[in-house]
Structures are given as C-alpha cells and as structure tokens.
Design a protein that fits this description.
Layout (H helix, E strand, L loop, with lengths): L8 H16 L7 H11 L16 H9 L1 H5 L3 E4 L2 E4 L1 H9 L3 H10 L15 H12 L4 H5 L7 H4 L7 E5 L21 E3 L4 E8 L2 E9 L6 E2 L10 E5 L2 E8 L4 E4 L1
Antiparallel strand pairs: 1-2, 3-6, 4-5, 5-9, 6-7, 6-8, 9-10
Helix pairs in contact: 1-2, 1-3
Length: 257
C-alpha cells in the first residue's frame, strides 16, 4: 500500500522518460508541458494529488515538475528552450531500468547505466520523429537544420517565449475546457509585433477574477502580480464587458484596458 510519501511521482518520472523515448528515440522531444501532461495521462493523479494549490496548480503537477530535475541531474534528459529531449544515456536507462522498482532505486542512488546497455529497439526512429513533430506542432530537427521558416514568436522575435497564456478562473469564459489550465489554445495570447507585447481580448461577465501569466503552456514558468515569478495572483474586479489583457515579457507584468 502506498503511503503519502509514496505517491505516483516516481511512476510519472519514469513515464516522462518513456514518453520522450517513445516520441523519437532522442531525435526530438517536446514542450515540457506536453510531456508532463502525457505522463500524468499514463499515471493519473490521485485525489490528494489533484488538489489545487494557490494559483490553481494541481499538487501532483507541481510535484512532478519539481521532481523532473532529477532526470536532468541524472543526465537522462535535457530541458531546452525548444522543449525537453531525452539523452542517449536516458534512452539506455529505459532499457537498463525497465520497471518502476529498478528505475526508482537507480534514480535515488545515482546508479550509472551499465556501459554495455544497448539502445532501445528502433520501434519508430524516422516514423516516431515525424509523429512527434505533428504532436508537438513543430518541425523535425532535420527540417530546422535545413532552414525551415519560423514556427513561433520565439523563432520570429528573439527574447520572446514560444507561447504565453493567461490562466485564471475565467478560462471557461474564453472557451477552454477548464479554468487555470495554460495548455488550452483558447487562453493563448497573441504577440503584437508593433507594440512588442502579448494581447488577448475577450468579453467577461461582471465579477472578481484571479489569474496569472503562464509561459509555454505550462506552470513551470509563471508570473503573478508585479511580474513576480511564482508570485501572488493578479486580481481583476470587472464591471462586465470587453477587456484586453496586455503582457510585456520584458517586465513580466500584465495590464488591462
């Protein structure tokens, strides 16, 4: 029987590595938020892990986000601006430690992957890379090397993130399936090149609203009041009607008009 300490985090860390291995065997990874979401889909949150913390982040999601640093420390995964990628050592780890018990022990003890461990079977090198490109919305690395056109604000405008979401208790009013969920398309802001700010305009009923800015469709990087990372929620007391949110990535702060 699992105790409070023995939640599903270790299983999900293994799922993170497996997701990255399944996608492209090291050829391509994916946005961290998408990888975390798929890992949680494979190992669902229990009731306690589903509890929302301040800012509307599920307890288990925050725990997994923090714990993912263990995979980086082990040398099994790399977190880059364009997404998360499994390393060759990480690929071998999926073979050397195929079950939860051996994986957990190796990760906790810092056990190196045996030198003679083979790479996993190529169950989809080229095919998986293509599939990963479709799944994450980006081109395969080979296409990028050949000079394919920009695909995000980060490509077109250096210094800008790939995506900015306004995540709060009004997500459903914007058409998202749930509130406080930065991965939905409906809560993504649009970059205004002329003003160098991110914008979204919507109609909201009269009421009091709370929200934050979340970067790259994930809570890993988020900004609250006064542009403070992981800060307190922005508060909006709205009389009802149209409102425009404007986010400046230089100051990390947001304003409304």
């Amino acid at each position: 029987m699992k105790t409070k300490a023995q939640d599903g985090t270790t299983q999900r860390l293994k799922a993170v590595l497996d997701v990255l291995a399944d996608r492209a065997l090291g050829a391509a990874g994916g946005p961290g938020s998408a990888v975390l979401a798929e890992a949680i889909a494979r190992v669902p949150l229990n009731e306690r892990e589903s509890e929302l913390l301040s800012g509307g982040v599920p307890r288990g999601f925050k725990t997994l986000t923090t714990a993912s640093a263990k995979l980086v420390k082990a040398g099994w995964m790399v977190k880059g601006r364009s997404g998360w990628t499994i390393t060759e050592e990480g690929l071998r780890a999926t073979v050397a430690f195929p079950d939860e018990e051996s994986f957990a022990s190796a990760l906790a003890a810092g056990t190196p992957v045996p030198a003679d461990t083979p790479l996993p079977a190529a169950s989809g090198t080229a095919g998986s890379a293509d599939g990963a490109a479709e799944e994450t919305g980006g081109g395969a690395p080979a296409a990028e090397a050949e000079g394919s056109g920009p695909t995000s604000a980060a490509d077109q405008h250096p210094g800008q993130p790939a995506a900015v979401a306004i995540a709060g208790n009004f997500g459903s009013h914007l058409g998202a399936a749930e509130d406080w969920a930065p991965h939905f398309d409906e809560v993504q802001m649009v970059f205004d090149q002329d003003e160098s700010v991110w914008k979204i305009t919507t109609d909201l009923p009269a009421g009091a609203y709370s929200y934050k800015v979340a970067i790259d469709r994930s809570w890993v990087e988020n900004y609250g009041a006064f542009g403070v990372r992981d800060g307190s929620d922005h508060e909006l007391h709205h009389p009802g009607g149209q409102v425009t949110f404007r986010y400046d990535h230089d100051t990390k702060d947001i304003s409304t008009t």
